[in-house]
Design a protein that fits this description.
The chain has a single domain, classed as Thiolase/Chalcone synthase (Peroxisomal Thiolase, Chain A, domain 1), CATH 3.40.47.10. It has a six-stranded mixed β-sheet, sandwiched between helices. Strands 9-14-13-12 form a four-stranded mixed β-sheet. A two-stranded antiparallel ribbon has the order 2-3. The chain is α+β, with helices and mostly antiparallel strands. Helix 3 crosses helix 4 and helix 8 packs across helix 9.
Length: 360
């Protein structure tokens, strides 16, 4: 018994930006970018909102729009979704939550909603949290039935995890080191508790203190002066001069070192918890931060690159949506079949990292 992925979808903005176009903005070229990142193009949301992207990915995962993947072929009623979890760094509003905005758009009228801020690990944190909630709800329902009483918590049978990101809003387009890496998009999965099926086999999540602030984007409202020191002219003057850096900043080498070690450590721990080895995994769908990170990890693990789904070449890094998009492409392309075991890994700001193992 377990939490089974029954639907998968993705959404990418219409505007494709090539490396040559970036070369017109910053000092870079396609020849410089590709060997260092594996990225040829990325999609940028010029007109699309986070709600647009998240809703489209969700509707495809539900089979309500073409282009998604359904485990059993039948479309899923949005009204059957009990909970929506949206990992995102770039919600359309401080509130309502991005999850609530997506709920309204897709007609998931019975869903409880919340957002999750865990950067590029959102793929794992979101699906692992959904799995734990489904497991707990199944136990609550079983206990309620045995005691002939109502469940004591919201019954959860289907959860939509949809990561929607517009990282283009956080990128400093004058900084070559970061602007070449990121793109926009959304990835989604529908998870259902099935008593008679294996689904999520194990998961592992961790946080590491980022004392050196290797990955940072300050709050958009952290520099707003408050009126309470108005009587103190000096304090008011200082507050008025405070400014926030609105862009993400990254120490590339430090992040690379963290990412490679965290990716392997989390995969190894998740597989150990499931009692499995690399040989049992049909395909790894890692966070798409940099193709060099994936290649480095594959080499250290003694595995060919064919065992890893790579989508960064045409998407760039889309934070928590990246691995969900990679999973969707693997499912749509037929690289994962019913009964196969897959392993998804994420790592990012926080510092966050994790991996989960599941049977398709």
């Amino acid at each position: 018994m377990g939490s089974v992925i029954i639907g998968s979808g993705k959404s990418l903005p219409a505007r494709v930006v090539t490396n040559d176009e970036l070369g017109q903005i910053v000092d870079t070229t396609d020849e410089w970018i590709v060997p260092r990142t594996g990225i040829h193009t990325r999609h940028i949301a010029v007109h699309e909102t986070g709600t647009d992207l998240g809703a489209e990915a969700a509707l495809r995962a539900l089979g309500q729009a073409e282009g998604g993947w359904l485990r059993d072929g039948a479309a899923i009623d949005p009204a059957s979704i009990d909970l929506i979890i949206c990992p995102t760094l770039t919600p359309d509003a401080a509130f309502p939550s991005q999850a609530a905005l997506i709920r309204e758009r897709i007609g998931a009228v019975n869903a409880v909603c919340y957002d999750m801020s865990c950067a590029c690990s959102g793929c794992v944190y979101g699906t692992s949290t959904a799995d734990m909630l489904l497991y707990a709800s199944a136990a609550d329902r079983a206990a309620a039935e045995a005691a002939n009483r109502p469940p004591r918590r919201n019954p959860l049978r289907r959860i939509l995890v949809v990561a929607s990101e517009r990282l283009s809003r956080l990128v400093d387009w004058t900084q070559r080191e970061t602007c070449i890496l990121f793109g926009d998009g959304a990835g989604a999965v529908v998870m259902e508790w099935q008593d008679g099926s294996e689904g999520m086999l194990s998961s592992y999540m961790e946080n590491t203190d980022d004392t050196d602030r290797t990955l940072l984007c300050e709050s958009m409202f952290c520099d707003r002066p408050l009126p309470f020191d108005a009587a103190n002219d000096e304090a008011a003057a200082i507050a008025a001069q405070l400014t926030c850096d609105p862009y993400m900043r990254m120490a590339g080498q430090a992040v690379f070192k963290f990412a490679t070690s965290a990716m392997m450590r989390c995969i190894d721990t998740a597989l150990e918890r499931a009692g499995l080895s690399y040989d049992d995994v049909a395909l790894f769908t890692p966070h798409q931060a940099n193709e060099r990170i994936i290649r480095y990890a594959a080499k250290k693990m003694g595995l060919p690159m064919e065992r890893f789904q790579v989508s960064i070449d045409h998407t760039g890094n889309i934070s928590g949506a990246s691995a969900l998009i990679a999973l969707n492409e693997a499912l749509v392309e037929g690289k994962l079949q019913r009964g196969d075991i897959a392993c998804m890994a994420g790592f990012g700001g926080g510092l966050t990292a994790g991996a989960c193992v599941f049977r398709i």
